[in-house]
Amino acid sequence: MSVHASWYLTLAALLFTIGAVGLLVRRNVLVMFMCIELMLNAANLTFVTFARALNDIGGQVAVFFVLVVAAAEVVVGLGIIVAIFRRKVGATADDAHLLKG
Amino acid sequence: MSAPAVLAAATIPDAVTFALAAVICVVGALGVVLMRNPVHSALALVMTLFGVAVLFVEQDAQFLAAVQVIVYTGAIVVLFLFVIMLLGVDRRERVLADTFRGQRVVALVLGLMVLAEVVLLARTRWTTGAHSVAGPLDGPGSNVAKLGRSIFTTYLIPFEVTSALLVVAVVGAVVLARRPGLGEPSGEAPDEADGASPVGPGASGPGAEAADAEAADAAGAGTAESTAGAGAAAGAGAAVTR
């Protein structure tokens, strides 16, 4: 049989944490976006793990929809990034501070 | 966690596969966060995505593993690399420098709190064991057949809604990537960080803007990448006109 589900859940929690810390620490917008993808993948791993643990295919269906939404999110997000950085020189999040009072 | 399969001990190949894939995932994730060059971060992300795909196969999600490789590493990471190529690799970010005082420490503490919270929550049993309407995982048929039957019967309306979402995303990306049209105040300075654009600083005269907008309108029907590429070409045309 396969490895116990708690190991998978621990690994998913670790991946999510790495992604969250990376999102807080890094300032390159593209790398921050990749960290969001990391967190999405951790959630997907959790879904698949529970689908196996509970013997229910609903978790895999949820992962399917998460993949679709992630693709749409990446397309729009990268479009926004390109639109912002066509106007400004810098490529870090600190350079986009127009709302700062 | 009432299924007896979960409680059974793991065999040696499964345990080894899990350990290797887990190490690959964690190393790739750390690489995404710690690499200085965004291209290296994207390649480390590919590593993590492949590790997660292996874990999907290990848990009887063969279709999702294939989709993970095709969609994520085949499309999303390539899109990331395209955007990095368009914007230019920015090496000015110093990973070890704090913008705010103590930002790094606070981020680490918050991350550890999130980890502890998730692990503590996972130890308590939140699942009731009740089955959803989607169907069992170990029923008759292959994984693809079961997943497809569930998506196209039970989850048909959400599936159709995702198609609308994808159309909206494509239209939004095209609109976002367009340059401002003729007559609108563009007010954009040519960026020097973009290595593909040969436009020097101060090329925002009226003639340059007009040529710019014309070329952008001519390329308005393309996809996001081709429109952005045409934008760079329009910049080159503006420089020639001037």
Question: Can you put this structure into words, describing what you see?
Answer:
The complex is a heterodimer of chains A (101) and B (242). Chain A has helices at 5-25, 29-53, 58-87. Chain A has 101 residues and is an all-alpha fold. The mean pLDDT of chain A is 87. Chain B has helices at residues 4-7, 12-34, 38-58, 62-87, 103-123, 143-154, 156-177, 206-218, 224-241. Chain B has 242 residues and is mostly helical. Chain B is 66% helix and 0% strand. In chain B, helix 8 runs antiparallel to helix 9 (224-241). Chain B has two domains: 3-126 and 141-177, Four Helix Bundle (Hemerythrin (Met), subunit A); 200-241. Chain B has nine helices and no strands. At the A-B interface, helix 1, helix 2 and helix 3 of A face helix 1, helix 2, helix 3, helix 4 and helix 5 of B.
Largest sheet features of chain A? none
- CATH fold naming of the largest domain in chain B: Four Helix Bundle (Hemerythrin (Met), subunit A)
The helicity of chain A comes to over 70%
Count of folded domains of chain A: 1
Structural class of chain A: mainly alpha
CATH class assignment of the largest domain in chain B: Mainly Alpha
Largest interface, chains and sizes:
A-B, 77 and 105 residues
Gross geometry of chain A: elongated
Number of helices, counting only DSSP H or I runs of 4 residues or more of chain B:
9
What CATH architecture of the largest domain in chain B do you see? Up-down Bundle
Q: Tell me the name of the CATH class of chain A.
A: Mainly Alpha
Category by helix and strand content of chain B: mainly alpha
> Total helix count of chain A?
3
- What is the arithmetic mean of pLDDT of chain A? 87
Ranges of chain B where pLDDT stays below 50 over 5 or more residues in a row are: 1-7, 188-242
CATH topology of chain A: the name is Helix Hairpins
CATH architecture of chain A: Orthogonal Bundle
Strand/helix succession of chain A:
HHH
